[in-house]
Amino acid sequence: MFGTIITETYGLNDRRAVRAAILDLCGPESGWGWASNGIYAYFDPRRTPGAKIDGSNIFYVGLATDLAQRFAQHNGLSGPASRSNKWGKIEPWLRGHAEIGLSLWVQSPLAQSDNASYRRYMGPAFADAIEQVYSEQQSQSVMASVAHVEGLLIEAARLTYGTRPKWNRVGGRRRGAARAQAAGDDLLRLMSNDPRSLFVARRSLRELSANPTWVIYETALHAARSHALMASAFSAKSSVGNGEIVGAIHLLNRAMKSLSAHGGDYQTDYDRILSDGYV
Q1: Percent of the chain predicted with pLDDT > 90
Q2: 121 and 57 in one domain?
Q3: Cα–Cα distance for residue pair 48/54, rounded to 1 Å
């Protein structure tokens, strides 16, 4: 289940550090964080003070079964430049500008698909178990939902701004594109790093990787974000904002306390998020 968008800006000499942070938070060997499969976008992080925040600054939207590996391919850290990666676009940008923006729309570890990185981590002895847990049908279902969102975002850019993101040569999955009108610019705005939205992680990718407490907070918030999205789908609401996420935080907090033997005296991650002023 999607819910959290993690962003980062980085320069030419930061690429390996960013890759390490993605592996830490979205790698099968990390044991925490999010699934390795998800949606990503590159964008121009420069903003004129007071300018409208929208998605017109997005260069590219893509999907990956392994976000860290795909980042390495796009950033000249794995294999030669090719038509299937964007190093031929990203390198000239980074040589002419201080930074480029990256956003990751990540999923719960429960939505992890079977991929080569996961198999390498688990080892050949666990191959049969992997086949049982991550069936081909399940992995295809997970990646179909990822492809659906990718198509929605690319088509939303075309409908809103008259063209696809400049580095996207083709559109995405048709099923997702068909629903792009309803999404409009909202999702694109979030993928271009709108700090006003609670769907966007409160700390950057590298800040999260360096602080376990913040990762705990963000994984708890991921549940609240996902709950808000699911609740809106059942109620046919056209949009979900900070109010719905805050409501989900309080709802999940009450639920956790009701299930605890300590009752109201039990301090949850949501209690700490609120008392620390994290949101």
Answers
A1: 57
A2: yes
A3: 12
pLDDT tens, 199-256?
999 999 999 999 999 999 999 999 999 999 888 776 656 678 999 999 999 999 999 9
Query: Whose structure tokens read 């998605």?
Result: 55
Beta-strand runs (E) in the chain: 2-10, 38-43, 58-64, 100-107
Taking 3-state DSSP, the helix, strand and coil percentages for the chain, each rounded to the nearest 5, stand at 55, 10, 35
Nearest 5°: phi and psi at 102?
-130, 135
Question: Where a domain ends, among 155, 176, 210?
Answer: 210
Q: Under DSSP, is residue 70 helix (H, G, I), strand (E, B) or coil?
A: helix
HSE of 209, CA atoms in CB hemisphere, 13 A? 18
Q: How far is CA 172 from CA 39, 156, 177, 178, 181, in A?
A: 12, 11, 7, 10, 14
Q: How far apart are CA 151 and CA 143, in angstroms?
A: 12
Question: Domain limits at 204?
Answer: 2-210
Q: How distant is the alpha carbon of residue 267 from its chain centre?
A: 28
- Count up the domains in the chain and report the number: 2
Domain boundary among 210, 245, 271: 210
User: Does 222 lie in the same domain as 85?
Assistant: no
CA R_g for the chain: 19
148 and 124 in a common domain: yes
Q: Which of 228, 251, 248 lies closest to 239 in space, CA to CA?
A: 228
